[in-house]
Design goal:
Elements: H1 27-42, H2 47-82, H3 86-134, H4 138-145, H5 151-157, H6 159-190, H7 194-213, H8 215-239, H9 241-247, H10 250-302, H11 309-360, E1 370-373, E2 378-386, E3 393-402, E4 407-412, H12 418-426, E5 432-438, E6 444-447, E7 456-457, H13 458-463, H14 475-484, H15 490-493, E8 500-501, H16 503-506, H17 509-523, E9 527-531, H18 539-552, E10 555-559, E11 571-576, E12 579-584
Parallel strand pairs: 1-5, 4-10, 4-11, 6-9, 9-10
Antiparallel strand pairs: 2-3, 2-5, 7-8, 11-12
The structure holds adenosine-5'-triphosphate.
Length: 603
């Protein structure tokens, strides 16, 4: 069965949920745009962005003026040609050539300023989002609440296209505004009717374009969601590579990725079809652009009211206007394709604001636990804790005290809430009631079942979460600590302390757990909270690691399943669905009591 793919339905349920109101370009959309753009442009010291913006502005204004002159010169040049006036024709031709070179140089300057602004903004916005993502443990709340999909993708992939589109928008609008006004003014000198006609046509063309393009906004969202789903499917294989390999689940995985890919391709095809409709429409209007000057200008020439060169001027002016309007129309698909980015990125800031607001406005007692940091004694008073969604109360009304140097084992059936008790002590879970007092976080270390292996060297693993730079701990001390957790040969085996490796994949879980204890020996916290931190080592090694905790005199709260760890503790907190008990451990008869035999005491 392991190799049998699930039946193909051709459709899929997305992991990404988008509210219909988030898909709309409405007031909320512009508020979110302000959330992303405002801090960059309106902060103090935003000199560089404004200087770059001003460069683009000046370049566009100069180029528009040059465009106006070129239109006039083209008319004069044509008249000179018709009149066989060589003295005027060649100087005008050279002037137009020089103007074209100057105009190209100004365009490059403007493009460079825009590109630089784009990179600068991208760096700034990405840093802001990373800060907000890490602020107040927003990343943790996002994982727990699962209300924001693929935050990594949003931060890494979606900022750059957004900045690109937004920095292009004002210069393009300016260029359009300058160019169209200059050219329309010139056309007005040829015929008073042509300018209103062009404006009317431009307005009709723009509004019709927006109407025709409208489905593009929804399609842009569908593409974004389909791509996020595809990425999730591929990442899932990477994250569970070993398990999938054990199951031999390649066919099932290929199938789930294929379904996601097909869905993404279908959305891209919808986008392409919409583009065909839109392009057909653009071509239709380009025809009108071509015909319009002929209708207005040729009769005037035939009536002898304008010179032949005016026809060339009108054609050049129309070309400039058409190119400007084309630029505006190209902006609309660009802007709609990044509309989802605005919402998706702003959601990270909104989430961070919400987390901030909750932590600032917590009123302990009613719905949240009152967590205080300070002192050496762990105190828990009438603690009731719930899952983050608030749906389930796990354990109710716990009261206990753990003095410095005491070690408490947390036991109980699987799923009862043992790890969650540690989450509460860490302040990660806050739903519930009661009061908890723990030492300041710099004196506490958490040791999870699967230690976090950061990207970097063995040295940085050992010193985590502190930076290796400026750390006073010598190599000899690091090697001695490795020897104490029986990993004395690890540095030699992997080429020293400063070799970067993928430690999470390279080290067995038991080795990673021993790295966790090495971190403890180096950081020397006064309090340690362990969550099955020795589950992957054998019983003698476990005894050795616990002996290190005892020797260091640390205060310990430990979640464990094995009875062999009982002798290393003074107390057992036994959690049950309908209650809890706290019992001193007595091993006077030389035998360790079994966890499930820990008897209940009254509260
Ligand atoms: N993020 C979450 N949202 C909602 N419920 C959760 C979440 N995390 C855990 N739970 C639920 O909370 C309950 C307690 O989980 P916890 O991890 O504390 O159990 P445990 O006693 O440590 O179990 P085990 O011994 O199996 O590790 C479980 O029923 C679990 O499904």
């Amino acid at each position: 069965m392991a190799n049998t793919p699930p039946p193909s339905t051709g459709t899929m349920r997305s992991q990404v949920h988008v509210l219909p109101r988030d898909r709309k370009i409405n007031a909320a959309f512009f508020r979110r745009l302000g959330l992303l753009a405002g801090p960059y442009w309106l902060r103090r010291g935003a000199v560089l962005p404004w200087a770059l913006f001003a460069t683009g502005f000046v370049c566009n204004a100069v180029n528009a003026a040059l465009g106006g002159f070129m239109t006039k010169w083209t008319g004069d040049q044509t008249n000179a040609l018709v009149a066989k006036n060589v003295d005027l024709f060649w100087p005008l031709t050279i002037t137009i050539g020089v103007a074209m070179i100057v105009s190209a140089a100004i365009s490059w300057t403007s493009e460079f300023a825009t590109d630089y602004l784009e990179v600068h903004w991208r760096r700034w916005l990405t840093s802001l989002l990373v800060d907000r993502y890490l602020d107040h443990r927003t990343y943790y709340d996002i994982t727990v609440d699962r209300d924001i999909d693929n935050p990594d993708q949003r931060i890494q992939e979606e900022v750059a296209p957004l900045c690109k589109a937004l920095v292009q928008f004002p210069p393009a609008l300016m260029a359009i505004g300058f160019s169209v006004s200059v050219q329309v003014a010139l056309l007005g000198r040829i015929s008073p009717y042509i300018a209103p006609a062009i404006f009317t046509l431009a307005a009709v063309r723009f509004l019709s374009f927006v109407y025709v393009y409208r489905p593009g906004i929804g399609i842009a969202w569908d593409i974004k969601i389909a791509e996020a789903d595809l990425r999730y499917g591929v990442l899932h294989v990477r994250d569970h590579a070993e398990t999938i390999a054990f199951y031999g689940g390649e066919r099932a995985e290929r199938h789930q990725i294929r379904v996601r890919l097909d869905h993404a391709v279908r959305q891209t095809i919808r986008h392409a079809l919409n583009d065909i409709r839109v392009n057909f429409f653009i071509k239709l209007f380009q025809l009108a652009d071509f015909v319009l000057p002929l209708i207005f200008v040729v009769p005037l020439f035939l009536a002898g009211r304008i010179e032949y060169g005016a026809i060339a001027s009108a054609a050049t002016a129309t070309m400039f206007i058409q190119s400007a309007l084309g630029g505006l129309e190209r902006l609309i698909p660009t802007m709609t394709s990044v509309a989802p980015n605005v919402v998706r990125l702003a959601q990270i800031i909104e989430k961070s604001n919400a987390v901030r607001a909750v932590s600032a406005a917590v009123t302990p007692g009613q719905h949240s636990i009152d967590l205080r940091r300070g002192g050496d004694t762990i105190r828990v008073e009438r603690l009731t804790y719930k899952t983050p969604d608030g749906e389930r109360s796990l354990v109710e009304d716990i009261t206990l005290e753990l003095s410095p140097g005491r070690r408490m084992l947390v036991a109980g059936q699987t799923g009862v809430g043992k790890s969650s008790f540690l989450r509460v002590l860490a302040g990660l879970w806050t739903r519930g009631a009661g009061r908890v007092e723990v030492p300041p976080s710099d004196r506490v270390m958490f040791m999870p079942q699967k230690p976090y292996m950061m990207l970097g060297t063995l040295r940085s693993q050992l010193l985590y979460p502190h930076e290796p730079d400026g750390c006073a701990i010598t190599d000899a001390e690091l090697l001695a600590v490795l020897a104490r957790v029986r990993l004395g040969d690890l540095a030699d085996r992997h080429g020293g302390l400063d070799v970067e490796k993928d430690w999470a994949r390279l080290l067995s879980l038991g080795e990673q757990q021993r790295i966790g204890f090495a971190r403890f020996l180096l950081a020397r916290p006064t309090h340690v909270f362990l969550d099955e931190a020795t589950s992957a080592v054998d019983v003698p090694m476990e005894a050795h690691l616990y002996a290190l905790l005892v020797e260091a005199g640390a205060t310990v709260v430990s979640v464990a399943h094995r009875a062999s760890v009982i002798p290393f503790h003074h107390l057992v907190l036994d959690l049950r669905e309908n209650g809890w008990s706290l019992q001193p451990i007595t091993t006077g008869d030389g035998r360790s009591p079994s966890l499930c035999l820990v008897s209940e005491t009254t509260r």
